[in-house]
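Notes, p. 3: input format for complexes.
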Amino acid sequence: MYQVTFDEKDTIVRIDRELMDPQTVSRFLDLVNLAAALKDSRLADDWEKMFTRMLGFPTGVRLIRDPAVNKGTAFTEKEREVLGLRGLLPPKVHSMEDQVLRVLENVRRKPNDIEKYIFLISLQDRNKTLFYRIVTDYIEEMMPIIYTPTVGQACMEYGHIFRRPRGIFISSKDRGRMAELLRNWPYKDIRIIVVTDGERILGLGDLGADGMGIPVGKLALYTACAGIHHSLSLPITLDVGTENVALLNDPLYIGLKQRRLRGAAYDDFVEEFIMAMEEVFPRALVQFEDFANVNAFRLLEKYRERICCFNDDIQGTASVTLSGIYSALRITGGRLSDQKFLFLGAGEAGLGTADLTVSAMEGEGLSLQEARERCWFVDSKGLVVKGRSDLTGHKRRYAHDHDFIPDFLTAVETLKPTAIIGVSGRARMFTRPILEAMARINGRPLVFSLSNPTSNTECTAEEAYAWTEGRAIYTSGSPFDPVVYGGKRFVPAQGNNVYIFPGVGLGAIASQARHVTDEMFSVAAKTLAALVSEEDLEQGSLFPPLPKIREVSAAIAAAVAEVAYERGLATVPQPENLQEVIKSLMYEPKYQSYV
Ligand code: NAD
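Output follows (595 residues plus nicotinamide-adenine-dinucleotide):
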C-alpha cells in the first residue's frame, strides 16, 4: 500500500511506501513520473484519477470490495471524489472510532460465540484495517472468539459456516503442481506461513481440511499481537484426507473425501510442498501447526535444519509453559532444577515442554540425565517407565527405572511432584483426589491444566483453587474468568502460546534468521516471565495481561533477533537500535490516506 501526500498546489510532496518490494517501487516511480509528465503537459485534467487507475489501485466498487484497502464509510470526501466512490457510499463520512463502535455493538449483540466468530471473520473479509484495529484494541474480548476456544467450534462446523475461502488449500490431487498453486496467491512477498494438515486440531482430533480455521486464526494473532502485516502472511492447509468418518459422510465437508495419505506418500507430499514453498516464497518462516504427533516430531526434525521453521505445538507450548514455571517460581522461591514435573499426556505439548525444561535445567548445572529424571510422564496407558515395551520415539527418553503405575493419582502420591502439567486433551482428569493430594504434598502446588478447548481442560480454575484450599498456582490452556475463593480474588491468566509465537516470528523476520532454534524459545520464555509484574503474581496470574501483548511481542522479538545475530543465523546486518527497528516493523491498523 502507498500513501501519497500532496501540497496545496496538488504537487506530490511525499510518498510513503509500506511493504513494497523493489520491483513494485520502481514501477510505481515510473508511473509517478509519467503521471507528473502528463499533468505538466496538461493532457489530463483529472490526472489524479488517472494516476491511481494507472497504478492498478482499485476504484469504485472494486475498491469497496477489496478488504485490504476498503475503508467503508470512512473514505474521505476527496477520496470519494477521486476514486469514483460518489454515490456508492452513504453521504456521512464516519471516523474509524465511529466504525469501531458500530462493530462492537454488532459483535456484542450476537447471541453466541460462534455467531460472533462468523461476524468477525466477515469483517475481516470486508475491511481488514478495521478488523485488526478491533482485535488489537479489544484483544481480551476478541481473542477467545477468533482463536481458542471459539475457533475450535468454528473448525468443527467449518463446512457449515463456510462463506469465503481464505489462504491456500493444497490437496493430494495437486501433486506435481504445488508451486503453481502457491503462485496463485496475490501477494508475492510472504514472510510467514502457518500450515496444518488438520490431523490434530487443538484437542479436537482430526478435522481434515476444516482445520483451516487454525492457520487463519493464528495469522490474525500474528498481526494483532506482533504487528506483522497481514499481506506478509499466508495460511495453508494440506488436505491429505481425513480419518474422521463424520466428515467423510458430511455433504458440506470442504475437503477431499478420502482417507489420509500415510507413509512415503505423505512424506513425498509434504516434501513437494516444502520445495514449492522454498521456490515461490523463499523468505517465509514456516510454522507447523496442529499436525498429529506421529508426523509433528518427524517433520520438525527433518526440516528444522533445512528451512526456517518451527512447530508451535511443540516449541511454542514448551516456551509458554516454561515461562509459566519461571513465573510460578517467583512465587514459591526455589530453582527450576529443584522441581519435579509430572505430565499427564506424552504428546507434542508434554514432550516439547519437558525437552525445553530439561535444557533450561542443564543451564542451571544439572546433567542431561539428572534433568530428565525430574520429568515424569503418564500417558493413556499409565506411567512411562523403562519396563514398558509399547513406548515410541521421544517418550523413551523419559522412561525411568521405576515400577509401572497405571493411574495418575497413584503416580502423584508415589512420585510427589511439585508440578502437574495436563496436556492430555482429556477433560476433567485432574480430579478432586488428585488436587487434594497435590495440596498435601506441596505448600503451593503448580497445577497447569493446558488442554484445549475449555471443554477438554483437566480442571477448571474454580476446581483448582477450591480443591487445594486456594493454594494452587494455576494456569490453563483456555481462558477462565476470575475466581473468588476464601475471600481472595484469583485471576488465572491463560497459558496461551500467543504470548510466544508472534514475538518469535517477528524476531525471526526482523533478523531474517535462517533457522528458529530452541535457544530462541528459551530466551522467549525468560523474556516473557520477566514481564510479569508483582501485581500480576499477587493475583495468581503467571502471564502479563493480554492488552500488553504488543509490548511483550516486541521484547521477545528483540531477544530472539539477538540470538540470531549472536549465533550467526541472521542474514541481514544487525542494526544499532534493534528495539527501535523492531517497533518500526510493527504494523498499526490505521487508515491510510489514498489521495
Ligand atoms: P498429542 O495428541 O500430541 O498428545 C496427547 C497425549 O495425551 C498423548 O500422549 C496421549 O497418549 C495422551 N493421552 C490421551 N488420553 C490420555 C489419558 N486418558 N491419560 C493420559 N494421557 C492421555 O497432543 P498435544 O499437542 O500434546 O496437545 C495436548 C493438549 O494440550 C491439547 O488439548 C492441546 O489443545 C493442548 N495444548 C495447549 C497449549 C497451551 O495451552 N498453550 C498448547 C498446545 C497444546
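The longest helix spans residues 312-332.
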